[in-house]
Amino acid sequence: MKKAIVTVVGLDTVGIIARVCTYLAENSCNILDISQTITGGYFNMMLITDYGKSEKSFAVIREELKSLGEGIGVEIHVQREELFEKMHRI
Length: 90
Hints:
Layout: E1 3-11, H1 16-26, E2 30-39, E3 42-50, H2 58-72, E4 74-80, H3 81-87
Antiparallel strand pairs: 1-3, 1-4, 2-3
Helix pairs in contact: 1-2
């Protein structure tokens, strides 16, 4: 299993979850966990995904999600799970 952490942040608009989840599904990335909140009109979502069955490389997925975010007015960041864990270890 190849896990990645996807974070999505920006002003809340209709369709953010649908667009991100559709991209992931179309690229064989399984959503293992998802959390989203809207606070004061700001949208925040974090997903844990398994991209191990995708035909695309991690780098391509990361860049395409970044581009998708720019197109819908949010910032999307993707990190490999191991890097995310090392950055957040106390």
